[in-house]
């Protein structure tokens, strides 16, 4: 089984240095675990001017990586699509969003469209399926709820932050890994086709939950301080009988909906 | 003409009361008797009472009404009956352009995020435009949320096939010819928007935090810069960034589009099953219902049984984690985990400020504590001032009785 991992060039949130994004490192771990269990090989790919993130990825579980050299601002999708079509991997993994760039998360989708492959988004676990050539993927639906999808490869898969944490960086592995540089063919200009105007980020006021739309300032203050919430209409029982307290608690929890109704009801 | 001259002696003589028995040399006068002639004496209390409007618990006075004290009180005016007249439904008969919204509508219900996207669409549509929502049949409350038109979409296929759904949506959007299409930037909505963008080859403005007719704004490069663009065809709206629609309800008139049915080949997905979260193993940050123990709990075995019986995720205060009685990853608070749970059930936790920081995001709080003045009791929606130990025992007894099919115990 051949597994390809797309590694983006991430930016450190504080130092602005080029780093391997955590999501990409998680994707490498998922791929490495699957390759170890079914006997396969993992390849890393990066299309861009700077292979620094790929070099760091070698220390986090990748053994082989290819750097498709592109000038700054070029579209990475055609180069990646050409290389991956030639290699024909069974799975292509990528993080669901980049880190430090536009963070639009469009590259895996554009690549899947270019290669004509199906895409499964927000995966947190990977395993080989029961039938040959199938993969079992666990998709995150939020709050720990999963959707287990069994699909036939080849597939493009994006990785969700709830996936297992990445491997720790190992210096020896990073030295042993091989990093090849490939010159790519014709270059097309990147960007998303949007005319963007940039300026420093300005924080905007948060929406206050529970505040009525178009309400007065007093109503917004009430909602912000929690006076209008559950605490305002809260019930207080001082020194009740434990049985009464238990009944009150259970009925309150059922009213909220976090506790299932009694089986006999 | 001059006024008659007063004669005080004669007035007093007229007020003099005859001495009944003639024993007292002191003359007696009846001062309440009105003097003949002269102006009548004012009675401010009676005048005020005369101005009072009858009816209503709170006194109301008709100030313009001049009362001499003898006139009848102003009759109670019929109070305007506070009838809840149904708000007028706004109708956009011929919208100049359309703004389409594709909500998640998980389970046939609009989420808060979906409503915010509808609010953003209303802001884009303005007075002339119309908002059209592409929602399944059973979706409720789309008119009050701001939708002018409704296209039935999304309840044809039961299984999970996002590529086919994106294909059908792209066909419907092509037939609809909307000026803007908005998606929620959620797990499913963001996925669908990117699939549609890749299929249509149109640029996608993702994660917009400001949506207005003159520009949409999103953060970029780790929130160092923000990017502004004129609203394009496809936009996804960030959660909790745009206010919901607050105006009068819209009509949500059904609209039919003749989208050419797209023949989508059978996808690669062989099966898809939903696995509910296991509360015992789910990380605390993702948990929906957390039951936490504090220093007021002595018997942690009972607590663990209770957590299992309630199907909750266990949590603990810093004191218990420091003492080694609960694992460190269960710690709730500033130095532990900040929760995003729906309900937090605190047993024997007084609520230090650092602990309350971890609970700030929880929607409902239930607290059991012996101290009436504890901060956690103040924060809780249901607060019980009692020792947690007998309450835990009673809860376990009750849950066991329900599980045995004895139903609601008396």
Please supply descriptive tags for the structure shown above.
heterodimer; A: 265 residues; alpha/beta; Rossmann fold; 2 domains; 9-stranded mixed β-sheet; 7 helices; globular; B: 410 residues; 7-stranded parallel β-sheet; 5-stranded parallel β-sheet; 10 helices; 25% helix
Plain-language structure description:
The complex is a heterodimer of chains A (265) and B (410). Chain A has 265 residues and is an alpha/beta fold. Chain A has 7 helices and 13 strands. Chain A has helices at 22-38, 52-58, 76-87, 107-115, 171-176, 217-225, 242-256; strands at 2-6, 9-11, 18-20, 41-48, 64-69, 91-95, 119-128, 134-140, 146-152, 155-159, 178-183, 197-200, 235-238. In chain A, α3 (76-87) packs across α4. The longest helix of chain A has 17 residues, at 22-38. Chain A is globular. Chain A starts with a strand and ends in a 9-residue tail after the last helix. Among the domains of chain B are: 98-254, HUPs (Rossmann fold, 3-Layer(aba) Sandwich), CATH 3.40.50; 289-403, TPP-binding domain (Rossmann fold, 3-Layer(aba) Sandwich). In chain B, 25% of the residues lie in helices and 20% in strands. Chain B has helices at 8-15, 44-51, 112-125, 162-176, 187-200, 300-310, 318-322, 353-359, 375-379, 388-403, and strands spanning 16-17, 28-29, 52-53, 60-61, 98-101, 130-135, 149-152, 180-184, 204-208, 210-212, 215-220, 225-229, 234-237, 253-254, 269-275, 289-293, 313-316, 343-347, 364-369, 382-385. Chain B has a 7-stranded parallel sheet with strand order 9-13-8-5-6-7-14, with helices on both faces. Chain B is flat, with a radius of gyration of 37 Å. The model of chain B is unreliable at 70-80 (pLDDT under 50). Classes of the chains: A alpha/beta (265), B alpha/beta (410). Chains A and B meet through α4, β7, β8, β9 and β12 of A and α5, β9, β12, β15 and β19 of B. β13 of chain A pairs parallel with β20 (382-385) of chain B, so a sheet runs across the interface.
